[in-house]
Amino acid sequence: MERVFSSPVWHRKLVEPDVALSLIKDGSVIAISGFNMALTPEYLIERLYKLYVKTGHPKSLFIIMDTFPGSPGRGLDVIAKELYRNKDTEFIRGILTPYLGWSEWLQKMVAENMLEAYTWSIGVMAYWFREIGSGRPGVLTKVGLETFLDPRRDGGTLNEKSKEKKTVNIEVLKVGNEEYLLYRAPKPNVALIRGTTADEMGNLTMEDEGIYGSTLNIAQATKAMPNKGLVIAQVQRIARFGSLNPKEVIVPGPLIDYVVVAPREKHWQSASIDYDPRISGRIMPPLDPSLYPPLELGTRKIIARRVLLEMVKLIEELGRSIIVNLGVGIPSLVGQIAVEEEISSFIAITVESGPWGGVPLGGTDFGVSIGPYAIIPMPDQFTLYEGGIIDAASLGFLQVDKKGNVNSSMLPKRIPGPGGFPVIASGSPRLYFAGEFTAGPRRIEVRNGRLVIKDNGPIKKFVREVYKIFCNAENALKNGKEVLYITERAVFRLSQDGLKLVEIAPGVDIERDIISHMEFKPMVPRRIDVMDESLFKEGKMNLKTRVIKAIRA
Question: Cβ of 36: how many Cβ atoms within 10 Å?
Fold first, then answer.
């Protein structure tokens, strides 16, 4: 039986999910919020699919995501699993998403050409919603030039069906004598978004969420001319009109058509966290090392420490605190080590989704932070990156080639998408690419301040030519960027002649442990520094003393 809440100002907005979702027409373009599970309207996604299974409608949907609304076994991944197992190509005809990495099933659907699939960087995607909401044709940017996103290469297409259909496209345009890319996609006519509380007018707040994402911009893009679409919001609770602080309203009620209250289990802050007040900003915890157990001393910690050491050198060089971005994977550990070293207050750590400061979480919880001191909307966060406002960024890598080009994420049967990588790599003035030297099963120990390599991983990550380019080394050099490639056993610097070996770990032999596990020979100068021995020892690295001295000077 339909449940409708009545109020003089309610206008029948609060409804059961099927009442709102049944208004979605076949062939609709649906925009969905969500950075992994943060801000993902999980309940609406699942109920939409159940409605399709029950009635056969809506079908032939094209879904546009600002990142990826799900995680393994949750959100869109659950739907993709059912679609793949049933070989169902009717429900979703296509997707545009910056990231598929948490969905094995969606990646299989893409690889087997079951739907159209396109990918852009998160920053471009977030700005695209803002531009469409303003009535503009798309996003004009230099991000993606001479990379996988350039239409003279792949143009962001992920399979043959997308190359044939071209529902989403990227064009090369000249402004003056300079090249830009114009990113274009169909305007959404439906939006599924999420907040914490809605009042009787539909005003939406986010007091218990870990981020703001692109939620307002998604609603704006959907409501923009020429076809004003349908916006459905998932919330935890409702409130009386007038009871919400107007400064806390993120999406004004008139932009929202229907509100659905979700069960608690379908409204978690992140993939593994139901609710933590330190993530939403209700509690600011002290960033004391005792609150965060130190990481085990291994290759991942060594690499993250070496990245942090580079950031300390930058503080010393500039004589001030710095603003940085930390990517997913090993880079996300840098924040935790900064807490261990008691220097987190000197490094403003930002995450693509919007948090500033605190300790960024990793894995499927990536996107939220413990104890951030500020959280801003995602398009505004990416302004920092694309505009080079930050001082440095540390990003992961999958492959690096002899020219210094970086493949961040894609292999022939592995298509997670670029995430925020292309925008950050394009804009940041300093790039510290961080990753283990080889991949696959390996045994590497830290013993008496030295690296002991017993078994190397069989997969080489330093290759003659990367599978796909996500950071173009020639452009990085042309734009005057400082670029380092940091591993547990070696550090390389990008030069006009390619990669130059500048540091090796204590205990490592250059020929046996480095060059023999690369598909090309880097530049090897006569004098090569040994990586700081404190990287390979238990206890603190005494970075706090260095930072305080630099700031006081």
Answer: 27
Given a contact cutoff of 8 angstroms between Cβ atoms, the answer to whether 71 and 36 are in contact is yes
Backbone dihedral angles phi then psi of residue 524, each to the nearest 5 degrees? -120, 100
Indicate the pairing of strand 498-504 with strand 490-495: antiparallel
What are the angstrom distances between the C-alpha of 352 and each of 31, 206, 469?
19, 18, 21
Largest interatomic CA distance in the chain: 80
Number of domains in the chain: 2
Q: How far is CA 173 from CA 126, 135, 170, 183, 348, in A?
A: 21, 19, 10, 11, 36
What is the per-residue pLDDT for 11? 56
Vertex 372, ends 319 and 354: CA angle to 5°?
A: 95
CA distance 62 to 13: 25
Which structure tokens are listed for 11? Answer: 């206008």
CA distance 420 to 328: 9
Q: What is the DSSP letter of 510?
A: I
User: What pLDDT does 2 receive?
Assistant: 46
**Of residues 476, 480, 478, 529, the one with CA closest to residue 500:** 529
Would you list the DSSP string of 244-264? S-GGGEEE-GGG-SEEEEPPG
Task: Say yes or no: 307 and 232 in one domain.
Answer: no
| Spans of the chain, pLDDT less than 50 | 1-9
Question: Looking at beta carbons, which pairs linking 381-385 to residues 24 or more positions away fall under 8 Å?
Answer: 381/350, 381/351, 381/352, 381/353, 381/354, 382/122, 382/123, 382/126, 382/127, 382/352, 382/420, 382/423, 384/323, 384/325, 384/350, 385/123, 385/325, 385/352, 385/420, 385/423, 385/424, 385/426, 385/427, 385/428
Write down the pLDDT at residue 10. 52
Question: Are 201 and 326 within one domain?
Answer: no
Strand, helix or coil for residue 52: helix
My answer on whether 367 and 244 are in the same domain is: no
Catalytic residue chosen out of the listed positions 341, 352, 386, 488 = 352
Q: Examine the domain organization and report whether 535 and 431 are in the same domain.
A: yes
Structure tokens at 144: 């993606």
Q: Where are the alpha helices (DSSP H) in 319-431?
A: 334-340, 378-386, 421-427
Instruction: Report the DSSP beta bridge partners of residue 193.
Output: 233
Which contiguous run of DSSP H or E holds residue 205?
strand 204-205
Query: Is 352 in the active site?
Result: yes
pTM check: above 0.90? yes
User: Does 134 fall in a domain?
Assistant: no
